[in-house]
């Protein structure tokens, strides 16, 4: 029996390793434009054509995105286990990805194989809208989709149709005129009231904006939020914020840079978290945009910029009246920098007078923001204590519990980070302290743990297994009800 069990475990490990190494869900495999015979061999060797990677891309989606041959895509979708309408990353189908890449031959193949043109991804993009969003300027491609049954009037989740979505990228009006000829209205707006000029401004598309102005398209109107083209442009696209030339052009049309929307956002509030160009920040300051203006959420330009470059953060910090200003959630610029920025930025803020003794509305201290940073949370490597050392130089007590009662042990449990646990031990943090909810670190771990590693660490280092919650529940009681531990078939007898 033991030999059979060990054999089973061995096979299971082989399967797991194989899944982790599935070359069909690795971009590099498809970048080499593999032949059909190479793909067949990969599948024969145990690589699954339907498995998805951590971002929900499968072999067919990656083949399309990396420009594999039509024959390769044809072979993949001919496999009995592959559906032509498979949903992948963001709920997008193969047809939507092919449209995004502007790959007409693959689109024609997928349509022939029965791809559903009406399907949308989770953001509301169908194939036509996603092609427009990508700036694909190929009328034959759109014709193929329309002839295949696609409805060109469809909009994304923001209420934007193809004629709006394409405006950030196309440099002339030929595709705009094509969409008009197919029934779209050049004067249409999205759900927030943004028209084609705003979308062109958002992409910094000066050539198209000039054409639209010449055609008499309105450009000084505001949307439902009270934002004009300047504020909409400040939002930028996924490619980033527009450059200085865009705003200079908008200013030449008489649009004011010193403007706000209905919730108090200025162009500076919006753009300071996106722009990497200090010249652009200085442009708005020179135009009289108020650095200390806060929106309804309590955010000012410095808070927006706190995760940006040190040059931009420092420039705004020099003009901010209160470096310890917090938004409605009680979050300061220093807290944001502790979580998302470098030790250099943290040091600069501290030198300028940012306080380490601030807590957000939930009772989390500045320590919490460092401990939950993406580079620390669930880290498998040693945590970077550089920023923590800066806090300690300011007299910050790492061992002190937060106003909500959580100490570093509680935070380490929440973030599932063993190195934080070891740090808490080294800093002599109270391992049996109860937070405001009545949980010791061990009790909290029993509630949240996915396995017994953290629980065993806490017990081995003095956590009291007899401590109970305010409802007289012990760590053993809580662990007994923990579904994740049940699924893992974890032994919790050591908690008795």
Automatic annotation (TrEMBL):
* Pfam families for the chain: Ank_2 (PF12796)
Q: Does the keyword Signal apply?
A: yes
Gene3D superfamilies tied to this protein? Ankyrin repeat-containing domain
- ANK repeat segments run 90-122, 329-361, 404-436, 437-470
Reply yes or no: does the keyword Repeat apply. Answer: yes
User: Coiled-coil ranges per the record?
Assistant: none
Q: Which domain of life is it from?
A: Bacteria
Signal peptide residues on this chain, from the entry's feature table: 1-19
Keyword field: ANK repeat, Repeat, Signal
Which SUPFAM superfamilies does its entry note?
Answer: Ankyrin repeat (SSF48403)
Provide the protein name. Ankyrin repeat
Which organism does this sequence originate in? Answer: Neptunitalea lumnitzerae
């Amino acid at each position: 029996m033991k030999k059979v069990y060990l054999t089973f475990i061995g096979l299971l490990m082989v399967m797991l390793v194989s899944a982790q190494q599935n070359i069909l869900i690795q971009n590099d495999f498809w970048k080499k434009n593999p032949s059909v015979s190479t793909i067949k061999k990969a599948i024969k060797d145990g690589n699954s054509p339907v498995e998805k990677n951590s971002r929900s891309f499968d072999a067919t989606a990656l083949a399309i995105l990396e420009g594999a041959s039509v024959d390769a895509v044809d072979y993949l979708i001919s496999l009995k286990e592959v559906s032509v309408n498979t949903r992948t990353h963001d709920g997008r189908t193969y047809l939507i990805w092919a449209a995004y890449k502007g790959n007409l031959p693959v689109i024609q193949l997928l349509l022939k194989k029965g791809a559903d043109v009406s399907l949308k991804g989770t953001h509301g993009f169908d194939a036509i809208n996603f092609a427009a969003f990508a700036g694909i300027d190929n009328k034959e491609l759109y014709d193929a989709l329309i002839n295949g049954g696609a409805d060109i009037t469809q909009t994304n989740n923001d209420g934007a149709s193809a004629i709006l979505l394409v405006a950030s990228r196309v440099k002339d009006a030929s595709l705009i005129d094509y969409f008009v000829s197919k029934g779209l209205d050049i004067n249409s707006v999205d759900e927030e009231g943004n028209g084609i000029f705003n979308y062109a401004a958002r992409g910094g598309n000066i050539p198209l904006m000039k054409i639209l102005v010449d055609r008499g398209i309105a450009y000084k109107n505001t949307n439902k939020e009270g934002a004009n083209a300047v504020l909409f442009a400040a939002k930028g696209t996924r490619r980033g914020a527009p450059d200085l030339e865009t705003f200079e052009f908008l200013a030449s049309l008489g649009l004011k840079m010193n403007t706000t929307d209905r919730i108090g956002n200025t162009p500076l509030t919006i753009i300071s978290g996106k722009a990497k160009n200090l010249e652009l920040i200085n442009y708005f300051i020179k135009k009289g945009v108020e650095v200390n203006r806060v929106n309804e959420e309590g955010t000012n330009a410095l808070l927006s910029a706190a995760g940006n470059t040190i040059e931009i953060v420092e420039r705004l910090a020099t003009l901010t009246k209160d470096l310890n200003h917090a938004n409605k959630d009680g979050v300061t610029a220093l807290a944001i920098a502790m979580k998302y920025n470098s030790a250099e930025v943290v040091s600069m803020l501290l030198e300028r007078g940012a306080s380490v003794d601030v807590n957000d509305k939930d009772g989390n201290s500045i320590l919490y923001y460092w401990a939950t940073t993406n580079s620390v949370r669930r880290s498998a490597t040693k945590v970077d204590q550089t920023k923590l050392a800066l806090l300690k130089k300011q007299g910050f007590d790492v061992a002190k519990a937060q106003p909500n009662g959580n100490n570093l042990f509680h935070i380490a449990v929440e973030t599932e980070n063993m190195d934080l646990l070891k740090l808490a031990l080294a800093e002599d943090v109270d391992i049996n302290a109860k937070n405001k909810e009545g949980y010791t670190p061990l009790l909290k771990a029993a509630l949240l743990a996915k396995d017994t590693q953290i629980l065993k660490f806490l017990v081995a280092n003095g956590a009291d297994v007899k401590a109970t919650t305010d409802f007289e529940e012990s760590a053993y009681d809580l662990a007994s009800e923990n579904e994740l531990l049940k699924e893992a078939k974890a032994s919790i007898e050591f908690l008795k």
